């Protein structure tokens, strides 16, 4: 059986060294289908990882297991510290204003002040009293990030949070995520379909295939990165090949 530590809402006095999460032979079956197949993974503190994989390769399944949202995964899984998740759709509660969404279920001293600070960090102070349905897509994702941030996670799981955003908003949110990461330094696991997004943001890029981490690359280029950085060009080709895609885009 998997062992996991559910994410408490405040940063615990847990060991500040060692990996924040370790999967050791993690397996998840849905009926006859084995989606995660004895998968091994270690996530170091403060590291920014992007997880690529073809549609249906099990990225969200892995993320759900790491988030403690899947009680049926088998094998070893240990998560040390608190976890927060931001999903593709921001999942704000529509009948609560933005500010109340941030503090929902938050069991820390001074939740209001903490929510104010988180909203300020994501540039959403002006929209604190707004109803979620009146937010733009980018604002809703900012609110989702603030809700994750206010929990001071040791591990921040991002499940394609940028994929529904327009290109310009996406660039702004990329910068925001990097800024939040550099200030708070959670470990980040970003699930994405976008090789360039992975190369722009992450220190390490993983490719999930047939239930395992089939490929792993460190990203050598310093930040801020530009997609035409020479170090990224060959890495892009390598990652596309690991995904079974030729650079020209034909599979
Ligand atoms: N609750 C479930 N019951 C049955 N099958 C499931 C369940 N959740 C996921 N699966 C299956 O597991 C496989 C992996 O799904 P998952 O959502 O993890 O893939 P993914 O890599 O995140 O895909 P995408 O990139 O398209 O979002 C899929 O074939 C999916 O149908």
Automatic annotation (TrEMBL):
| Sorted UniProt keywords | ATP-binding, Cell membrane, Membrane, Nucleotide-binding, Translocase, Transport
Q: Which organism is it from?
A: Planotetraspora silvatica
One Pfam family, short name please?
A: ABC_tran
Boundaries of each ABC transporter domain copy?
A: 21-235
UniProt protein name: Aliphatic sulfonate ABC transporter ATP-binding protein
Q: Does the keyword Translocase apply?
A: yes
Taxonomic lineage of this organism?
Answer: Bacteria, Bacillati, Actinomycetota, Actinomycetes, Streptosporangiales
- Signal peptide positions on this chain: none
Q: Which GO terms describe its molecular function?
A: ATP binding; ATP hydrolysis activity
**UniProt keyword annotation of Translocase present:** yes
Give coiled-coil spans as residue ranges: none
